[in-house]
Amino acid sequence: MLKHILTSLTGGPVTEPAPAPADPALAELAGKLDKAAKARLGRSLSIREVDAGSCNGCELEIHALNNPIYDLERFGIRFVASPRHADVLLVTGPVAHNMREALVRTWDATPDPKWVVACGDCAVGGGLFTGGYACVGPVEEVLPVDLRIPGCPPRPVDLLAGLLALLETSAAT
Amino acid sequence: MYGEEPLFGLLNRIGTPVEGHRPWPRYRLGRDGWLRLIEELKGNAWSLLGLWGEVRAVHAAFREDFSGDVAVVSLDCPQGRFPSLSAVRPAANRLERAAHDLYGLTAERTTDPRPWLDHDSWGVRRPLSEQPAAPVPNPGPYTFLPVEGDGLHQIPVGPVHAGIIEPGHFRFTANGETVVRLEERLGYVHRGVEGLMQGRPVAEAAKLAARISGDATVAHSLAFARAVEAALGIAVPDRAVWLRALMAELERIANHLGDIGAICNDAAFAFMLAQTSQLRERVLRTADSCFGHRLMMDRVIPGGVAVDLPERGTGLLLDLVVELRRRFPPLVAIYDGKASLQDRTVTTGIVSAELVNRFGAGGHVGRASGRDQDARRSPGYAPYDELAFEVPVLTEGDVNARVWVRIREVEQSLSLIEQIVARLPAISRGLDHPSVPIEAGRGGEGMALVESFRGEIMTWVRLDGEGTVARCHPRDPSWFQWPLLEAAIGGNIVADFPLCNKSFNCSYAGHDL
Ligand code: SF4
Question: What residues does the NADH-quinone oxidoreductase subunit D domain cover (chain B) (predicted)?
């Protein structure tokens, strides 16, 4: 154990440099955030993740953001347990009807100003699950969506670029 | 073993074999035959492999564990009713409730008639039946089982949980800190996968199969592909068989690494997660370089595989094996030597051997409680018959045993990858990707058993004459593990629930479909 800690201390960080904030994401966000919101957020974001019918693939890659290689927290972005502490809802899945109410209630519990990020092809456009009896479809049919991160699932670098764009835009004055 | 009649012996007497069902037989039973089967199930140990409905019929699959014989039984139910198996096979109950919610089939004399997947939010009842019905006006709340006693309180949790995990509802009844009962309510991520598959060409349905449970995308794709190939009598190219196993073992390692770390993290030992999540990332990156997708989604397809390994792939894989063999054992030593960690995992969340056998639970949940079953070995499938590997089995049944089974499986999978990589060059590359076309115009029924990192997946498929999916039922291992989590947490403290839950890591999406 001690040896491991020593190697970790002397070995230097394993964390990789950040990707550039995603351009399309930046463009999508520009103009969406008013001044009051920017002032309030400063340079930190608290995210509440909501699985609204995901296959769990998106969750795996969101998890990866917390590993030491992507280390999301170094940017002041962190995942929180309660929507009441969140600025951002990161929503995955084609919004199963069985999750719709829970999603809306989570949104209601999130204080203003708040943003919704649709994560993954399912959340962005319904994915392969449109047309059935069990799913509503894209998140935007239920909540106003501010940022879309496509991919099935999005790679951690794409997630990081999208979230950084959100941070940059919200922090710019 | 119990002086019982062999599975096939009984079914040949009470049922009629159905043509064109592969690789195991399917028998059509009359109502009397079905009742006779229930009688017989009381006294024998045949494992339930699945139970699923379709329009006016119900099917169930069984395995005689010691001989490895597998059979499907079917009962026509023109009145939409069938005698329930739940009294003799408790694992059938939730599957029967699902068949009721989707197809309107009623299980007579069931042990629990409550709805399961239907939460009164679809805007339709029994959506896959011949005559879907209007929703119930003003549906009442779901009734949880009554719990009575002095000093008991209830703690409802979910569907949205504190972490980045899938949604489900847990109703704890506790006496002080001790859990007296846990009742699960699932179905929140029901996306209607079975309904969406119906009428789709095989290639499209395969994409849905790949998204049944994202963490087991390779295994579910493989189960679907092998069921389709069985139905059509297709043999896939040799190279594809080996590449499939390679992907399946990478997936197993990636998941076990992530979960071992996450279990320790739930025991407040964050160091382990920080370490194993790096190893997991290493596996995913190798998968990405080799197959073009970190989770290898849509890489196993009916007929073969969608991509071949690039020339440099074998080198990358061997590097990965070397690196994991260097970095993983010291972490295992730390797990083994940390008293504070062992204090949380040893004797926590015990599942008895009797229960895993009664529910036919597979994977690390079954194998940590003495159930020596692995689909790669029995019934077995290629190429595992040509590979050397051990199936680790422990008997303690606690969180610690589940961790150790996973640790041992990581080691076994590393050896399997090494063996596969050594064999690959000798197997002709052939075309740019090894697969055979799935021709339209043929039908059939097929079934496959595949060992995912979580346990055994059973996928059953019927293809119609146009080569589209008439009915597919993918049964995730979680169906038989979720009920045991309720038992595992009984008598433990509420604070140990995350630990127990993570050590199981049942799939919500794979179960809810
Ligand atoms: S986008 Fe892909 S990975 Fe994400 S939930 Fe949908 S199917 Fe799963």
Answer: 275-426, 444-509
